[in-house]
Design goal:
By secondary structure, the protein is an alpha/beta fold. The chain is about 45% helix and about 10% strand. β3 and β4 form a beta hairpin. α2 crosses α3 and α3 crosses α4. The chain is globular and about 50 Å long.
Length: about 325
């Protein structure tokens, strides 16, 4: 292979040993059709594709990384391929906002301590983590849209490394108190569309329930705009409330300030310990890369249709393996 086409494997192709609990394995089988055989074949097919795809310069090959995409796409290898390629491409072409996901950077540490976004240490009755958002504490005159993307990326990437979360999905709770028109000027309409659409299609997380409270009338039009960008499936999972006490969620999952048991400050400190545990692997992700010259300008800018149907590397062996494994999964609705 020529030097131009050589690539780095940032993590090895490990032999997977499933760490999931029996209950979570049952969820994976029922909701994702994940079996030991399907998992083994899908991982093998993805690795062959990554090895022989000339577009990749550096990529992780470990099972936990690849399974985040396979599970989100219900083990459709072609759909997982598209998501991996789009994920690495956009991390690279969109620059600093999606790299250097280091919670110890001063601005990131400040936003986390403010409670802009963090994760409750408690799981709901379905074993799902609860992500808590407080966008009103984000000062649009002090922080940038890159700061917003990066601190959210730190949260999501940390959760994506957890296999229980990969299978069971997430619950979201957002307090819109304090959000005003200046927050809406952080992104242009084009940027907002690209981020929302790629977020749903590319970020391998399963969003199961979404609760919002304290949405101010002045930003209601922006919320309606955003709701129009997401899929109907996700829209049906969004529930909005006027008062916190009306939110149909177990309040024990939330900080004490929202009716729970544990003070928000303590929750944030526990979350920071989780961030510390995953810091090294998040920074390793910055070394992944593709050859940008092999993509169209539209693909580099995040056009959601630009990569569709372009992930094959025209290798018969890999193609045969993928077709044999995924033929029955092409029409699945993907969480």
């Amino acid at each position: 292979m020529s030097k131009r086409l050589t690539k780095r494997y940032l993590t090895p192709s490990d032999k997977y040993e499933c760490p999931l609990s029996a209950d979570t394995r049952a969820v994976a089988l029922e909701e994702l059709r994940e079996t030991d055989n399907a998992r083994t074949q899908a991982l093998e097919a993805l690795r062959k594709w990554l090895e022989q795809n000339p577009k990749f310069m550096a990529v992780r090959m470990d099972s936990v990384f690849l399974l985040r995409f396979l599970r989100t796409k219900k083990f459709s290898v072609p759909m997982a391929q598209e998501a991996i390629e789009r994920y690495v491409l956009l991390r690279q072409s969109w620059g600093i906002a999606f790299n250097q996901l280091d919670h110890t950077l001063p601005t990131m540490a400040e936003l986390i301590d403010l409670g802009y976004i963090f994760v409750s240490p408690y799981k709901d009755k379905a074993g799902r983590r609860v992500v808590i958002y407080r966008p009103g504490v984000f000062d649009p005159y002090k922080y940038t849209n890159q700061d917003m993307c990066r601190v959210m990326g730190i949260c999501y990437e940390t959760l994506m490394e957890d296999e229980e979360t990969q299978v069971r999905g997430l619950v979201h709770f957002a307090d819109g108190g304090g959000v005003g028109f200046p927050h809406l000027t952080l992104f242009t309409p084009k940027e907002a569309v690209r981020i929302v659409k790629n977020g749903e299609r590319t970020i391998p997380l399963r969003h199961k329930e979404i609760y919002g409270v304290n949405v101010h009338p002045t930003v209601k039009f922006a919320l309606d705009f955003g709701m129009g960008l997401i899929s109907e499936k996700i829209r049906k999972r969004v529930r909005l409330y006027t008062a916190v006490e009306d939110v149909e969620i177990d309040k024990k999952l939330l900080p004490k300030e929202y009716g729970g048991i544990m003070p928000m400050k303590d929750m944030i400190e526990l979350w920071k310990k989780e961030l510390s545990d995953k810091r090294d692997i998040l920074l390793l992700n910055d070394k992944m890369g593709v050859r940008l010259e092999m993509y169209s300008e539209a693909a580099r800018e995040g056009a959601v249709s630009a990569l569709r149907g372009t992930t094959s590397c025209n290798n018969d062996a890999v193609g045969d393996a993928m077709r044999g494994l995924t033929g029955n999964f092409r029409k699945l609705e993907v969480d």
